[in-house]
Structure formats: C-alpha cells, structure tokens
Amino acid sequence: MGETPVSAALSPPQTSVSDASRLDKLPRLSPRQVRIFFWLLAIALGAAQAWATRFTMNPDGISYLDMGDAYWRGNWHMAINAYFSPFYSWILGFFMKVLRPSPYWEYPLAHLVNFLIYLAALGCFEFFLRNFIRSRRHSDENARKQGNVTLPEWGWWMLGYALFISASLQLITLRSITPDMCVAAFVYLASALILQIQAGAGTPRTVLFLGIVLGFAYLAKAVMFPLALVFIAVAACCARNVRQDVRCAAIAGFGFLLIASLFITILSRSKHRVTFGDSGSIAYEVYVNGIDQFVPASGSLKHPVNKIYDMPPTYEFGGPIGGTYPLWYDSTYWHEGIRPYFDLAQQFHAIAASLLTYSGQFCSAFLQLNATVALLVLYLIAPRPSACLKCAGASWPLLVIGLAAMGLYALVYAESRYFAPFIVLFWLAAFCGVHLPDSRGLVRTIAVVVVAVSITSIAQSARSTWLDGHSAPDYHRLATALCDYGITRGSKLAVIGTEPFGKSGAFSARLAKAQIVAQIRRSDLFWAAPAITRAEVLQALARAGVQAVLASDLPTSADLSTGWHRLGTSPDYIHVFGRDDQ
Question: Does the chain have fewer CB atoms within 10 Å around its N or its C terminus?
C-alpha cells in the first residue's frame, strides 16, 4: 500500500453540498447566550461562597478592619501603615461606619463587601474579555485565509469566564478578607486598556486612564508599584513609533503619580525616608532571609519587642502601635532597623519553593491541570507546534505582564491569591497560539476541548465552595463569652501560642473590641513548666497591664486548677486577673 502524503492528510476534507447543509443546521452557541449564562453562574457561585464563609476570618482581615476604623474616625497616626495598603481598608471602613453592624454581623458584612468587589471584578473582566476578543478578530480572519482554525468567539467567552471563575473562587476566594480581588479588578481593567492601545484605538485619555487605574492598583497593594512600571512599559511598546512611545509612557506615568504620589508622600514623611511601602522588604526578610515575622531578632532593631519572661518566651507589645494585634497590624515598626540581604543559597531556596508552587498550580488535578493538558493536546496535534508558540507570541503584552508578575513573586514568595489574575492573562495568551488545519474534525476537537476545560473548571470551583461548607459564628460566641468575664472595649489581653489567631485570639478579640498586648509564644513549654513557673509568667503579664489570658488547643495534661475558666461550651479557656478564684 502506498503512503498518504502529509499535505493530503492535513488538507481540509471535501464537504458535499448535503454535508454542508447539515452543518449549517447544527445548533450554534451565541456569544450573548454564553455571556449571560456565565454571568449568572459566576454571580451564583460567588454568592454561595460568600454566604458559606460569611463567619470566617483571617489575620490580614483583622488588620484591614482595624485600619478602616482608624481612617474613618480620623485617627491618621494609626491609619497610616507601611505594611498594609489603604484602598481596601477604605472600602471596609466605609461600610462598617455607614451600616454599623453588631458584632454578630461584622464579619458577614466584610464578606458582603468582598462579594461586591467580586462583582466589580467581574465587570472589569467583561470589559477586558470584550477587548481581548475584538483584538483577536483580525488574526483569526488571517488564520482562516491561510486554511487554519482558531477558537470560535463563543469559545473565548466560555474559556475566559471559566478561567475567571476558577481564579476568583479557587485561587483568591471570597473566604479571605484581603485586597487581592481589588487588585484582580484593576489588573483586568489595565490589561483591557493596553489592548486598546495595541489595537491603535488608544487616545491620550485612554493612556491617562491607564495610569490612574494603575495608581489605584498600587493603593490596593504595594507590589503594584513595580508592576505598574511593567504595565506602562508594555503600553509604551504598543505605540506605533518612538515619539508615541515616549508620549504614552509620560501620560501614563503622570496619571499614576496623580493618584499614588500623595500617599507615597504621606508614607515617606511618616517613615522619615522615601518609600512606597515596606511590605516587599519585610516579605524578603521573612521568606528569604528567615527572619521571624512576629518577633524579629536582630541587634539592629530600633523597636525590639519587650521580652518580660525568658522561658517560656513571653512578650509584651502594648504600644505605641494600635490594632487588635499590634505585632501584625504594622510589622514595619517592629522590623525597623533590619535590612534584607542577598544570600545566593537563600535566594535559590525561595525561587525553588515558588517554582514548586507554580508547578502545583499547573499540574494539580484540583487546580489547573485541565487547562495544561488541553493546551498541550491542541499544540501537539498541530502540524507545527513551534508555529503555535509563534502565534501565541502575538499576544505578547499579556504574556509579558503575566510572566513579569509571576517572576517577581517567585523571587520572594508565591501564593495563589497573589498571581491569580496574571495566570488568567497567561492562559488566554497561550490559547491564542491554537492554530489547526481547517477540518470538521479539528473544529469539533477545539470545541470539545474548550467545553471540557470550562466544565471542569466550573466543577472545581463549585467543589471548592462545597468544601467550604457552612461556617458558624464561633468568633462571636467567644466574644460574647469574653464579655461575660468583663472583657469589653479597650481591655488588654494576652494569648498563649505562636500565632495569636483563632477562636480565642485576635478573631474574637476584634469583635469584643479588646486588644492583644502580650503573648506566651510556646504553649507546650508553658503547660509543661512547673506550677511556680506558670505563676511567675502570669504575674509578669499582670504587671504588664494584662487583664486576662486566653488559651486554646490545650494539651490533655494541662493544669487548669488555678483560675482557668472555660469559655462557654468551647475548648478555649480564660484566666482573669483579680478574680476571687484566681
């Protein structure tokens, strides 16, 4: 038997008139129907996750709530913070001030704010995806003229929204009270404006608006300051000539500084040095140099945490930093004097850890292995996979932005909620490389792959929401129990544990409006110590002005006979100084 030529094997099969008529009668998905369906689906899944996790809280959330309160009551000394950026706290503080929720509804209200920001991010993504698909039409037409097929328009809408839902509800999530959803919204909006500039539709007003968007993105998270430079450089390179490049960069830079400069000035004056935020340097100290996040140890510290007992290590930190838990509210104060340093072995370890995180992201069956496999399949069945890579390179603005952000995080610490919007840009740019020979079988293959990726992504997001289950108001119950022991607004508390979060920690103290001002960092050493040692530690805490000590996760051998009382029906305990049964 003779061999079939490769060109003949790859050429489009001849379709008869009857076949063509049958193809015309096949139902086609309308982009408008796809968009409406995914909008409703995104809203429903987002609302379900926000409701399921409405009573949850996280460490960053406590600090942002404290900051929001400080801004809206005019306590500028406490509000200005070089570790946590202000934009998200402004939003949270506004809703807290206007609606004045009871302690029971305070955390659910924060999750409602998260959901509203999620809806805003959905609108920004719609604007981005609309511009992205518009920018694809010219290259798709050229591909068809050359006898190739790409993703259909409905496929881009379906894939785009599936990736958005997955990134928002699996990677960022509405469980965490963090500004990452705000950042995602600004990233999508800025990327859409860059696509307009690349398409030649960018006016000076568009470029100025890009700078303003990037300025607000910086106010949401300090890492967007260096990334804003990447956005502006990409926008400038999208201009048509060198003169327009310079003009574009200047206008966008002006818009960025218009928004960011005031906060940078205030922050720099408060720190007595030029800075746009110290979260990056502290992250480098912690994740690369190995400095303790809460109680740093260094001879160069300007404000060392006051150690009031050696073993078990016990610390007092009642001032001058405010917040429910001062050690976390503004880490820059407690780390001041430490300078991050470069060590090749430490840097290599940090990069390796980040690459492991990224590989888990791309290769986990519960995250985005579906998109990875789908892309590889479509590339490998192409006659020339290298040509697919070249076609994907045409979407270089999205690739540059996505890879630059992921590379920046890889140097220090990569967490899924940080790079979530950038991985969406990366995937869309990568799927732009799909160019296959025009045949009915390959057209159907593309459609099947896109639908499969979308369905599995949505299923994973729904599974994630389902696993979140139904949160209970445990923190409110503990706060109510604290009130029964005289813990009210302004009370000074101590906690036992490495990180003072959880039911009998900062999460409950925030609702009781109390402040954690001291900490026994080694729970195991405290409970294993002789009774006389434990008594001495408690006396040291009392001299430091502590009114009560909170303890959770007690070992079964813990001695609770000397003044410890159970908080309601929880496994948490309190020791109140000055009670008769102490």
Answer: N
